[in-house]
Amino acid sequence: MQKPEQYKFISYDISEDKQGFFTIHFHGKMDAQSSPEIINKLLDKIDSLSPVSLTADLDGVSYFDDFGLLVLIELQKAVKNKKGFFHVTDNRGKAKNILYLLESNFDRSVSPFKQKGLQRVVEELGGTVLNYFSNFKAAVSFLGSVVLSFSQICRFPKSLRINDTILYMEKTGVNALPIIALISFLLGLVIAFMSSLQLEQFGANLYVASLVSIGMVSELGPIMTAIVVAGRSGSAFAAEIGTMKISEEIDALFVMGFDPTLFLAVPRILASIIVVPLLTLFSDIFAIAGGLVVGVFILDLTASSYMTQTINVLSLFEICWGISKSIVFAVVISWVGCLRGFQTQGGADAVGNAATSAVVSSIFLIILFDSIFAIGRSYWR
Amino acid sequence: MLRVRNLVARYGDEVILNNISFDVIKGEILVILGGSGCGKSTLLRHMVGLSAPSTGSVYIEGADITTCDTKTFHNILKGIGILFQNSALLGSMTIGENIALPIAEYSGLPKSSVDILVNLKLSSVELEGYEDYLPSQLSGGMKKRAGLARALALNPKILFLDEPTAGLDPVISSEIDDLIMKINEKFGTTIVIVTHDLDTIFTVAKRVIMLDKKTKSIIAEGDPKHLKDHSPDPAVRQFFNRNAKIETTWLQ
After folding, report:
1. How far B73 CA sits from the closest chain A CA (Å)?
2. How many residue pairs bridge chain A and chain B with CB atoms within 8 Å of each other?
3. For a Cys staple, A184 with which of A152, A286, A307, A349, CB 3.0–4.6 Å?
């Protein structure tokens, strides 16, 4: 019995029968492991030999598959380019089931790789534009569905899934409190410290308290809270609903007669509307505490003077302004998170894309709405 | 009970189903079968209103679900149950909560009665004692049975089953087949099954309709045991006899 190692690799030798008439004798296995290695060597050889006729002799071949055929196709192509003739001899019939494919022109078949060029660019551009339009349509349609669901809750309060709403209030609000408290405290600390470097030169240390409180309450508090909630909860909403979508759970809800928007989106949106303003208030308090630490320990202010200055400078309007911003941000984050979840199509990667897209879209919309608030305020005054 | 008339379904520009018409008779077990990608599941989605057809109608108990108002559609939905291919149990809820969900919503029963009913449903699919398990803690066969229990929660008049035995071993598959026949016998439920599992087809189907990927329409209708040997269409006989069609490739 022959040892299999003997036939592990392909080998070949070339004989010249008469001037310009060559034969390549193949031996061993022409398979996926061995065939690719010899293609380049053989093509170089043919380039130097420029044969009038080339015969591939497969009589010594012990195994032959489509990778072996690839060798023959490449040889045939190279010989024809040199205006030569290509023949195959297969007296043992090792390749008889596949050799007929040598006649097919595989170069003409459709490439699995994406075509390049202007046509592709135009196609992609058109596809992207259409995609944006359909996304916009879906977003408006989902917004309408959310509004209808809320109006249904106003008419029939029992249709609200109160337990789910409480659960999401805990997930979005209570569980986010430590990280928001820490970030806000450090932010207050940093703002106080950085502003003190400038204000100290004018002996205006006390105004550090004003800067921290106004900056945080009307601007940074709502924004920071919204960004953290978008990262934590917006992505979670998209991933949860997206997973339910691809595993047909939303279809199951629909067939059982439940409105998926009312069942899944409304509790999340309502929970966000309740807890994000509360988180924003906590963020403001912790940021002021951070500023207080810098004021007392670095700027030699007394705690009472710092707090008095903070209370003097903060009006009810500033606090309400920050809170109303945070309500808008809460709607944006939860709406976008749920929308991206419902738009999920495909497999596991689509869920990841939905979560990423939810965070990116939310942050963009938060900044956009913040700008609108800023412009609105400039007209207000 | 259910009538599909001239239904055309598309994904984008591609026609998936072309001019499909058939009836489902009250109390029967009808199997929709065909090779992979022939549009079986698409047809099922159209029959329960999850997708809207390009043209055509689906009548359930006389009402066209493609054109009826939301209230009528919701009333129709209460009369149907569906078992999805991967069971589609809500992952965040226990098996008991999954089954209780439609019962609590539509029956108006107190919680204690809903609990009893959930246990009854679970025992009907031999899953008693599993009400506090999450779907992720169950095997594939148990998930299918739990999904079946949820589909049966409101004793639907029509039960749709999408590949009920896909991915299950032969023993569990035959248990599910058995369960399907018992449901049909005991409750007189009309059952529409989408599958290409020949064992299930020959065991439970009283009548089949076969879809074809090429023509995008129905190519055979009748008793599967008769079609197996006597269908005039060779593609139908080939399907029922598991004959390979690979003749033109080098992989011989």
Report:
1. 9
2. 52
3. A286
Residues 6 or more apart whose CB falls under 8 angstroms from that of B122 comprise B95, B96, B99, B128, B129, B130, B131, B146, B149
CB < 8 Å to A100, chain B: 250
Q: Please name the member of B86, B102, B251 whose beta carbon is closest to the beta carbon of A256.
A: B102
State the Cα–Cα distance between residues A23 and A14, nearest whole angstrom. 6
Question: For the segment B193-238, what is each residue's pLDDT rounded down to a tens digit?
Answer: 998 888 889 899 989 999 988 888 898 899 988 888 888 888 888 8
Per residue in A212-221, pLDDT (tens digit) is: 999 999 999 9
User: How many other CB atoms are there within 10 angstroms of residue B5's CB atom?
Assistant: 17
Neighbours of A313 (CB within 10 A): 16
CB contact under 8 A, A252 and B77: no
SS3 content of chain A, % helix, strand, coil (to 5): 75, 10, 15
Whole-angstrom Cα distance, residue A69 to residue A65?
Answer: 6
Q: Give the mean pLDDT of A193-215.
A: 89
CB within 8 Å of A7: residues ≥ 6 apart: A28, A29, A62, A63
In the CATH hierarchy, which fold is given to the domain comprising A4-106?
A: Transcription Regulator spoIIAA (3.30.750)
SS3 A200: helix
The residues spanned by each domain of chain A are 4-106, 131-380
Between CA A287 and CA A310 the distance in angstroms is: 12
Architecture per CATH, B1-79+192-243: 3-Layer(aba) Sandwich (3.40)
Among the partner-chain residues A98, A249, A254, the one whose CB lies closest to the CB of B250 is A98
Q: What type of residue is A349?
A: D
